[in-house]
Automatic annotation (TrEMBL):
SUPFAM superfamilies: MFS general substrate transporter. It is found in: Cell membrane. It is a multi-pass membrane protein. It comes from Achromobacter aloeverae. Its main location: membrane. This is MFS transporter. GO terms for molecular function: transmembrane transporter activity. The chain crosses the membrane at residues 46-64, 76-95, 101-127, 134-152, 218-240, 252-272, 292-315, 322-342, 369-391. It comes from the Bacteria. GO terms for cellular component: plasma membrane.
Amino acid sequence: MRLNNRRGIILALGTTQTLAWASSYYLPAMLAAPMARDLGVTTPTVFAAFSVALLVSALVGPSAGHAIDRWGGRPVLMVTNLIFAGGLTGLAAAQGPLTLFSAWALLGIGMGSGLYEAAFAALVRLYGKNSRSAISGITLLAGFASTVGWPLSTYMELHWGWRGACLTWAVLHVILALPLNAMLPTPAQVDTPKTTSAARPAPITANASAPDDVPETIWPSILLAVVFAVTWFSSTAMAAHLPAVLMGAGATLAAAVAAGALVGPAQVAARIAEFTLLRRTHPLLSAKLASLGHPVGAVVLLALGAPAASAFVLLHGAGNGILTIAKGTLPLAIFGTGGYGLRQGVLMVPARLAQASAPWLFGICVNRWGAGALWVTAILGLASFTALQLLRLPAGRLSGSAKVAPR
C-alpha cells in the first residue's frame, strides 16, 4: 500500500517524526536520572553520552541528505527506524559507560538521518518547490513530541523501568513508524489531482546545481548556517535551563514551571500561523520576524523581572516554532531543489555542534550571571537577525517563492 495524497503523507511523516523526536531527543529529560542510578554513573555522564549522539548526528547528516537526494526519503527513513530500534534496544541492554555511549552513538546515527532535516528533504524530493505547506504540516504535528513523549516515558519508567521504556520505544519504531514510512511513495508515484506536470519536481541528482537565477555561492550558505546554529543553541539552552533562568529573574519554582509549560503551545500556535496566515509570505520575512522573538522577550524579562516570565516564554516559543520551519523552507527558497538533502545536512552541521555544546556552555553562563545569561542568547539572536538581513534574493524571487501548492 502506498500513500498518494498530500494530507496522508503529511500525517504519516508527522506521526513518525513525533515518535522519532520523543524516543531520542526528548528521552534523557525523563530517563537520564534512573538510567544513571542503575548504571552506576552520574546524570551528567548520561547527558554526555547524549551529546555524543548529537555530534554523531552532525557527521551523519550530509550523507543522509545525499542519500535522500538520490533515492528519495522512503528507503532512508525506513532504515532509520531500524537504527532507532537498534539503538534503543542497545540502551535497554546497557551495563556500563561503554555500552551506554555505544548505544547513544547508534541513536545519533538515527537522529542525523531520521529527524526533521531528513523529513524535509523527503518532502522536497516529492514536491519540489511546493513543499512549504507540507513542511509546516509535519512540524505542526511533531511539535507535540515532548507533550506526548515526556508523559509516556515517565509512565513507562514507573511501570516497567527505564529499560522497559527504551524497549517499548524500540518496538513502536518497528510496528508503527516503519510501516508508515514504508507507505511513503517514491517521487515517481506522487499523484495528486491538483498537481500539474509543470508543478512536479524534476529529478534531483547528486550534482544538480541551484536552479533559476539564484547563484550558488558560499556566502548565503554561511549566513544560513549562522542562523540555524543560533536557533539550535538558544532552543537547546532554554530547554535545559529555562526554569533556572526564570527563577533567576525572580519567579518562584511553581511560576517558572507554569511559564515554561507555555513553550510547546507557543510553538504550535506559531506553526499554525505559519501554516495559515503566513503561508503566502516569503519564508525569509517570517524568519526575520521569528528571529526577534527571543531577543525581544529576553529584554522584556530582564527589564520587568518575574511578571514578564510568561511573555518571554511565549515570544521565545513562537519564534522558535517558526524558525524550525525556516530550517526547511529557507534553503528551498534561496537555493531551489537541486541537491537539497545534501545541502540541508551540511548547513545543519554547525547547528548540531552548537546544540551539543549548549547545555554545558549556557549552564556556565547561568551559574555565573543568573538571568543575565539571557544577554548571551539575546545578542546571538540579534546576530541571527542580522544574518537574515544580509541575505539577498534576486528581483521577483521574494514573492514568487512564497506560492504554495494546494493542500
